[in-house]
Here is the input.
Amino acid sequence: MWAYFTRRLIIAIPTLWVVITVAFFLMRLAPGGPFDQEAPLPPEIMANLKAAYGLDQPLWWQYFNYLGNLLQGDFGPSFKYKDFSVTELIGQGFPVSIQNGAAALFIAILFGIPLGTMAALRQNTGADHAAMTVAMTGIVVPNFVVGPLLALIFGIYLRDTMFALPVAGWNNGAFPNRILPVICLALPFIAYIARITRASLIETLRTNYVRTARAKGLPFRMVILRHAFKSAMIPVVTYLGPATVFLLTGSMVIETIFGLPGIGRYFVQGALNRDYTLVMGVTILAASMVIFINLLVDMTYAWLDPKVRYE
Amino acid sequence: MSDAPMNERRSGANLSVPNADALDKAADVEGRSLWQDAFRRLQANRAAMISAIVLIVLAFICFVGPAFVPWSYEEIDWDILEATPPNFETGHYLGTDSLGRDLLARILQGGQVSFLVGILATSVALVIGVAVGATAGFMGGRVDQFLMRFVDVMYAVPLMFFIIILMVVFGRNFYLMFLAIGFVEWLTMSRIVRGQTLTLKNKEFIEAARASGGSTASIILRHIVPNVLGVVIVYVTLTIPQVILLESFLSFLGLGVQPPMTSWGALIAEGAQEMEITPRTLILPAVCLSTTLFCFNFLGDGLRDALDPKDR
Here is the structure.
């Protein structure tokens, strides 16, 4: 197990390197630069700015310089947010994204798994169809539609009632400011988790070991909880891997709609402004999380499925 | 296309025929291919059939409709210049947006973009995914190792971030956008095709093809690919809505199609700006987008049930 764990961590290094390299050169291919403005800067000032950030050096030099700084934990200065280093910006944005993401993930699991389980146990009944239609609606109504609609309802139509909620800003993490973004973020994931749970549990209930457990005379509830449920969770955990990364690295859309200072919004702004170092920093952070969470998911398999062994 | 696995199943079904009388009857029954069977099952699925019809109608309206709308999507009605409710006299059947452009014409044009992105980007993903998956599965060995490690590495990449970087690089070029989305959507396809190929490659009909002198390339193209089509079609139908959603998402962030051209995502973004005054500009494109996604998902589920009877 530990050998496997270490091996995976070692493979992560070349993977990260590929991500860094591709992202670095792709960003530089993009037309325009970080100091482009509507009114062009005088050439002398532009030259000074470029020299100050090392952009006047050849590209390969910049690349190795960046890698060297990275190895020392230095993500470089942001090009757009003057006087801020990328590390500082991520340090500000990441807690916001991760708190929202974790809350949304918690809600998604809390509602998604029971909803899917109910539907599976009442397969092909009205309750099942109703639950799955609701889940499908959660999937096909994108959260960039739900977000503005909720803002419209709670921010404008219910503005003078007790249900009024703030629809923009972070306000240092005040609870009411978090409600709408977290709900928006969680809705599609509740839907996906419910669908996957249902499909997987239905399949598990048809397996021989579940039939054996029932034939032994175990009460149905025990069969579900002790035998079927654990292995039915495997596809859900598989899905939770990428979903977690997406939720934690901040849904860019949600942060844009609700004006939250998370890293998703930094990334979109950074890409549009050609803020090379900021884009690289967020990409590296996201890639590391993908790798780490995939590993975590694989570890969870070993616990959920006794057939899975790592050595 | 090879009939081998289908023959296998058909003869399997006939094994239980007990007497000559029944055999005569069986001879009268017209042979049905696996595809005809699947199509019959699909026809029996009402949700899937309705979805298919709605999709065809929607696509038809989006592509033919603009010819019957008095305004074009980029034309500004200089007498209005603001969001107005539907008005049949001026020919704005669904009203105008905040710049005085005809909302119906814009929704139709947005629909064209969404359908085109969905189909073209999925085709790119389909071609790459099937080629990589079938090659890796059939060749095995080092080729398989190399291709699948590459796919593994790609899975560890935060794709959303890369699409956004690609959009910036391509300067939001309309056609390169399809390519960019297709390039990141092929991974799962290749894994599915590889898995299918692995189960197929030891079947007798492949051996027969090889014994009769078929080259590797021709076996993959003529025998492997047609036999993985069933699974691939299901996955394609489920990828199209994902791609449409992805494009809308990018357009919502201002990274997709460029004005004056529009897409449902871009219209939703515009609508969200003015929703307090004219909720219509948000809700109408949102309904179109959601209906399309809904139908594609139902059709995909129906196809899966039809082509893979195991789970019924």
Chain B is about 70% helix and 0% strand. Chain B touches chain A at residues 153, 155-158, 160-162, 164-169, 171, 241, 245, 248-249, 252-255, 265, 268-269, 271-272, 275-276, 279, 282, 286, 289-290, 293-294, 297-298, 311 (CB under 8 Å). Confidence is low (pLDDT under 50) at residues 1-15 of chain B.
